[in-house]
Design goal:
Length: 420
């Protein structure tokens, strides 16, 4: 029976990873002739539906998640009808697929295990990034393929074990198999936070935060610095250590300025002000201004997704992108599962996760793809299950006589990982 369960798990995990890597935001779709999203989504939908039918005793999805799911689906249906915009139907389908996927994982108790190996899949990509970064830096690796995408302005490089969008001298910003380094860094942040609050995988804890630094993502540096400071706010010696290590890193990186391995240009220089008193690394300033103007024209429901996509101006990847596209109502619908966490679980570790994720969303807002739906709604499910686990722990603690005055923390009395 256990062998059959393992087989089902690995089949489901493998098929889900395959569905992820052949679609956005993975870059493999640029060099392999994969089918369009509409085809792969339909196939994956019926596959996971088949897996769900294999489950004899199905658990009900937590009611709060089903309610939020229903509200969100109805909201996007309204947008689809109002704007006669099929892209909102795509959102509804992707969200439905996400819901069924999580329903299966929750019904089989595969959920925590599924995410443990999803995290390790991202971690393997960060290992490839480190290898690629070092080999290119010492001149031992050349790109297997150089190609252009969309507007054809910036070349992409494929190194066999990683893509990169940057090649300056001997310096690259590797992105694993994703379309840009910032994308890999953002999913690594999700993985690090999932692991911190729920999974407790020592491999992820010890290595992934450091390996991800080779993406040279400014947003990642900001999020991880904020995470470390808030997490260790009472540990003065640790904070002093962070300051000292940061100072040493700044000095060391500054020595690379003007060389073939100009780390300075891709890190520290991006925080400096240019002649127009604008932060040099802020490539989204123009997009913010353009999207803000569009938002002000229709603040409540935006201008519609397809109308937004037809604009010639730079408008993407900034805090005003979703409000301009979908308005305040659409912004609320997009982040509703994230906001709902505040009402179901306010454990301090989860609140810290929300703070770090919110900081990331200010730079890289929610994008409509299955991967983002899966991560965001999984965070919601993690938080709901965690709240139930903590409640169970407190009940057990009470039953065995651990009272309020005891030095034993009721949340720690029972190992939450064991319950999952």
């Amino acid at each position: 029976m256990k062998k059959k369960s393992n087989l089902i798990f690995w089949l489901f995990w493998g098929i889900t990873i395959l569905f992820l890597i052949i679609n956005e935001p993975y870059a493999l779709r640029w060099i392999f002739p994969f089918p369009e999203l509409i085809v792969t989504a339909i196939v994956y939908f019926f596959v996971i539906l088949s897996f769900l039918f294999l489950v004899r005793e199905k658990k009900r999805m937590p009611g709060v998640i089903t309610i939020i799911f229903g509200i969100t689906e109805l909201g996007w249906f309204f947008y689809a009808v109002y704007y006669l915009d099929s892209s909102y139907i795509t959102r509804m389908v992707l969200l439905l697929i996400t819901y069924i996927c999580l329903l299966f994982l929750n019904s089989t108790d595969f959920f925590y295990r599924f995410w443990k190996y999803c995290n390790r899949f991202v971690f393997v990509q960060t290992i490839f990034c480190v290898i690629c970064f070092v080999l290119v830096a010492v001149g031992l690796l050349q790109p297997l393929m150089t190609f252009y995408v969309d507007d054809g302005i910036f070349p992409y490089y494929f190194w066999g074990i990683s893509f990169s969008k940057t090649l300056v001298g001997n310096l690259i910003r590797p992105s694993g198999f994703l379309d840009e380094p910032g994308a890999l860094a953002s999913w690594a942040v999700f993985g690090i936070l999932f692991n911190y609050a729920f999974l407790k995988d020592q491999i992820i804890k010890k290595y992934m935060p450091y390996f991800t630094t080779v993406t040279l993502s400014v947003a990642y540096y900001i999020q991880m610095t904020l995470f470390l400071i808030v997490k260790n706010v009472k540990n003065v010696s640790f904070l002093i250590l962070i300051i000292l290590l940061t100072a040493v890193a700044v000095v060391a990186i500054s020595t690379t300025e003007g060389t073939d391995f100009d780390l300075y240009a891709k890190t520290i220089a991006r925080f400096e002000y240019d002649e127009e008193s604008v932060i040099a690394g802020n490539s989204r300033e123009l997009g913010i201004e353009n999207a803000k103007v569009i938002f002000e024209k229709s603040p409540m429901i935006g201008i519609g997704s397809q109308n937004f996509g037809k604009l010639d101006e730079v408008t993407a990847d900034n805090p005003y992108e979703i409000p301009a596209k979908d308005g305040i109502i659409g912004l609320f619908l997009t982040y509703l599962p994230f906001l709902a966490v505040l009402f179901v679980n306010r454990r301090k570790e989860i609140l810290l996760c929300m703070m770090i994720l919110a900081a990331g969303y200010l730079q890289r807002p929610f994008h409509v793809n299955f991967m983002h739906y899966l991560y965001l709604w999984s965070f919601f499910l993690f938080s709901v299950l965690d709240a139930k686990n903590v409640k169970s722990c407190r009940t057990i603690a009470n039953e065995v006589g651990v009272n309020e005055q005891s030095k034993v923390n009721k949340n720690e009395y029972c190992n939450i990982d064991d319950l999952s």
